[in-house]
Design brief:
about 210 residues; alpha/beta; DNA polymerase, domain 1; 2 domains; 9 helices; globular
Length: about 210
């Protein structure tokens, strides 16, 4: 099982929205809903250039991304546990006999923040972030890399995603994708769509001989 992070492990997108709006406002850019929608599932270098212009240097892009994520972590630090997607801990406990991986476009400090603050790190022996691959989602590279590190064929992996780009990446990798509807209610291409990990339809679909 390979999990995205934001919107799948932790329902962080509401806080990301607030952090992006506050950060762009500080720099003279008023956030719109269209801009918020475009940021879902993207790597920060893509978001920064979209919001502030493609003329920025790599160093400027990195600085903007790092500063915005520091603001996000400050906002999230007291609510990380309560922001875990409902049912996640019990779901992971029930399926600990399987191999778990994490594949996220998130910044490395955010990955560390979530895994360490919630104590989930021991459950994920393989973690790959968007800066460890050449092509971020929707390219399948990150999912194929996690499958390789888990030593599991791509066709035997199930991906959990909440964004359009993430679903596209999982499908392109030849994996079955479960959509978690924390971010979008309609996720074309998924094999199953559930609100969270408490949905009994998920366990039924994962039952031997049923998952397809």
């Amino acid at each position: 099982m390979i999990f995205d992070m934001d919107g799948v492990i932790i329902d962080s997108n509401p806080v990301h929205r607030i952090a992006w709006a506050e950060y762009t406002r500080r720099h003279g850019v008023e956030m719109t809903e269209a801009m918020q929608q475009r940021m879902y599932g993207k790597r920060n270098d893509e978001i920064i250039r979209d919001f502030f212009g493609h003329q920025l240097s790599d160093d400027e892009v990195f600085a903007h991304g790092a500063n915005k994520e520091a603001l996000y972590r400050e906002m999230m630090k007291l609510r990380a546990e309560e922001s875990l997607v409902p049912g996640l801990r019990d779901f992971l406990a029930r399926h600990r006999y399987l191999k778990f991986g994490l594949a996220t476009n998130a910044e490395p400090p955010n990955v560390d923040f979530v895994l360490d603050t919630t104590g989930l790190r021991p459950l994920f022996p393989v973690v790959v972030n968007g800066h460890e691959v050449t092509h971020p989602k929707p390219h399948p590279e990150i999912y194929l890399r996690v499958a390789e590190l888990l030593r599991v064929p791509a066709a035997e992996c199930v991906v959990f995603e909440d964004s359009y780009t993430g679903v596209e990446a999982g499908v392109a990798a030849g994996m079955r994708v479960v959509g978690i509807t924390t971010t979008h209610h309609d996720l074309p291409g998924v094999s199953l769509s559930v609100a969270d990990f408490r949905d009994p339809a998920l366990e039924s679909w994962l039952a031997p001989g049923v998952c397809s």
